[in-house]
Design brief:
alpha/beta; Rossmann fold; 409 residues; binds magnesium ion; Arc Repressor Mutant, subunit A; binds adenosine-5'-triphosphate; 3 domains
Length: 409
């Protein structure tokens, strides 16, 4: 329906709201994206409203938002969409993702201080000199923005006591926050927080602490795995927005957007769309990959497949056995079934299953564990060989017998 309305609007060279009353927001977004030729953005109206409310709240009292969800669910898309909306209100924002092997502190400080990456070191030194009121602060900031210190500058910093270094860090952070506010920056987004190393995490933690007293809205994007499986204490004050599945109408419009009409006959295209929507379970990156593969019912999207296999390679023998056992038992498995399996393997404690949760493979629910996504379950299941499958079946049957043996016959 979204595609038809948008095509009609394009054909008659009018906007979609000229053709129909009360245009739903996902359709409006879809039509805008098609007409502009860029990536569409659908659904997430509730999340955008939440972000806007938190942002407004931040004008009177400090607030922060943590956007979390599985890989590819749309955290970055949501954050960027919100920041785009802010731009229309003449407010500035800064978006800095954590990237592998990249100097986050350098990019973050340069973004806030409006220092271009192309600027040569001598010019950067001039900018920093104008900001810092002491030599030590000047050296400290130079290091943050990625200018190589000379030996005297390095010596001066390396001989400071930890408490003096702590004070300098706080001063430099305060200066960053002040500069951000002076340049009318009202929101700062740090994306991919889960990928940060300990030094970067320390920096971000300190920045959050210092900016708490200021009117800077912080948005943190993260996949809830590893250290972030459960919110750490220093993020407890942030409001969590957990991204789940896109709703049906958003999936329909996204599927239409990614379908190339020439690729298959219309009846097969419709089948591909429906199968891909079903298997994607409302996950936009998976939906896109399935549609683009034109084999929505068979393939596993490559990024998801690779991530899952990479994760499996890191597991211990017991964890792999446990995971395959759970997969054979179903997409969701009761806690007592897992307990039974671990007792047979003479494993005490919940570490193996806790690790699977922290790796983003399983989700804990009230009385069971569920695979994080239907396709993660299917990938694991596809790796179980027939002989294993029989063994797991015997396990489950034995477990059922054990469970009911105390009942009168
Ligand atoms: N609301 C949405 N509407 C349309 N497309 C979306 C939406 N959300 C995500 N997508 C698409 O899905 C893909 C993955 O989105 P995105 O990169 O935002 O996910 P992510 O959660 O940030 O992933 P990662 O965990 O890898 O950082 C992108 O191609 C993006 O355009
Ligand atoms: Mg992202």
């Amino acid at each position: 329906m979204f595609r038809t309305v948008t095509h009609l609007a394009c054909f008659f060279d009018v906007s979609v709201d000229y053709l129909m009353e009360d245009v739903p927001l996902p359709l409006l977004n879809y039509a805008k994206a098609v007409q502009k030729g860029d990536e569409p953005f659908v659904g997430r109206d509730w999340e955008l409203v939440q972000l806007q409310q938190l942002y407004n709240l931040n004008l009177s009292s400090q607030s922060a938002a943590c956007i979390q969800g599985m890989q590819g669910v749309g955290k970055t898309a949501l954050i960027k969409r919100f920041l785009d909306q802010l731009q229309h209100t003449n407010k500035h924002s800064v978006y800095v993702p954590i990237e592998p092997n990249d100097a986050f502190t350098r990019r973050f400080c340069r973004a806030i201080l409006c220092i271009s990456n192309d600027l040569d070191d001598a010019s950067v030194r001039l900018v920093i000199k104008a900001l810092a009121n002491t030599s030590l602060l000047y050296f400290y900031l130079l290091d943050w923005v990625g200018v190589t210190l000379d030996s005297a500058e390095r010596y001066a910093l390396s001989h400071l006591s930890p408490s003096r270094l702590g004070e300098l860090e706080a001063l430099a952070m305060t200066l960053l926050v002040q500069k951000a506010l002076e340049s009318s920056v009202s929101a700062i987004a740090i994306d991919n927080l889960h990928a940060a190393n300990s030094k970067q995490l320390h920096f971000i933690e300190e920045f959050i602490e210092i900016s708490k007293k200021q009117r800077l809205f912080l948005i943190l994007g993260l996949t809830d795995i590893g250290l972030f499986t459960y919110p750490p204490d220093w993020l407890k004050h942030a409001h969590t927005i957990s991204l789940g599945a896109l709703n049906d109408s958003a999936c329909e419009s996204l599927a239409s957007f990614y379908t190339k009409p020439q690729s298959l006959p219309p009846s097969q295209l419709e089948l591909l769309r429906q199968l891909s929507i079903k298997r994607s379970n409302g996950h936009p990156a998976i939906l896109k990959a399935l549609i683009e593969s034109t084999q929505g019912d068979k393939v596993f999207p490559e990024p998801l497949y690779k991530t899952t296999i990479r994760t499996l390679l890191e597991l211990t023998h017991v964890q792999v056995s446990l995971l395959k056992f759970i997969a054979c038992a179903g997409m969701a498995v009761k806690v007592e079934v897992i307990d039974y399996f671990l007792s047979i393997k003479s494993v005490t404690g919940i570490k193996p299953v806790h690790d699977l949760v922290c790796l983003g493979i399983l989700c804990p629910k009230s009385n069971c564990y569920v695979f994080r996504h239907l396709l993660i379950w299917e990938i694991v299941l596809s790796l179980v060989i027939d002989s294993d499958r029989k063994e797991w079946k015997t396990f489950s049957q034995r477990q059922k017998k054990e469970r009911y043996k105390h009942l009168p016959k």
